[in-house]
Amino acid sequence: MPGVKLTTQAYCKMVLHGAKYPHCAVNGLLVAEKQKPRKEHLPLGGPGAHHTLFVDCIPLFHGTLALAPMLEVALTLIDSWCKDNSYVIAGYYQANERVKDASPNQVAEKVASRIAEGFSDTALIMVDNTKFTMDCVVPTIHVYEHHENKWRCRDPHYRRDTVRAEGVEKSPLQAPPTGPSVR
Fold first, then answer.
1. 152: domain CATH number?
2. Which of 14, 18, 99, 118 sits at 20 to 30 Å (Cα–Cα) from 38?
3. Kind of pairing, strands 123-127 and 87-95?
4. How many domains are contained in the chain?
5. Which PANTHER family match (predicted)?
6. What is the secondary structure of 35-101 as a DSSP string?
């Protein structure tokens, strides 16, 4: 199976979407650049191994995620935008409402399966709210891949600009300075 890579922008937008609405479930789509045909005989993990690079994230909803008409419209509009800009909808992310719940629900699996109909290397990414702390020393996501009609968790094999991403992750968690402002 191919690996997954996230740009700093995609990772931070996804995590910060959850941070902006900590009392709600949030979801969104991940987009990748359109891929050129590749040779299937490349060794896994080797220098020519294939990775899906998620270049951006498009936040969708917070609160109620199972709004089928709004989701259909969003998918149609985003798919049209992707075609115009040489991108493809390649993944789905979700952060659940409950802090200790990081497993995909039926909505996440259905949306990701629908995306997988048009993109074979689709990833379902679940944000783990328990790992989103002041230190942010470990990745805050779980990556799921579609295998034999089921979504299975895999280790998060991705790369990102750790220093920049961690700085952005920490900023909404830090309290604003107290006292008079200096101008």
1. 3.40.140.10
2. 14
3. parallel
4. 1
5. ER MEMBRANE PROTEIN COMPLEX, ER MEMBRANE PROTEIN COMPLEX SUBUNIT 8
6. PPP--TTSPTTSTT--EEEEEEEEEEEES----HHHHHHHHHHHHHHHHHTTEEEEEEEEE-SSTT-
How far from the centroid of its chain's Cα atoms is residue 54's Cα?
8
* Distance (Å, whole) CA 174 – CA 150: 39
147 falls within a domain? yes
* pLDDT score for 44: 47
Cα–chain-centroid distance for residue 5? Answer: 10
Q: Which residues pair with 87 in a beta bridge?
A: 33
User: Look-up: residue for tokens 């702390």?
Assistant: 133
Q: Is the pLDDT of residue 49 over 70?
A: no
Q: What is the pTM of this model?
A: 0.78
pLDDT on residue 143: 92
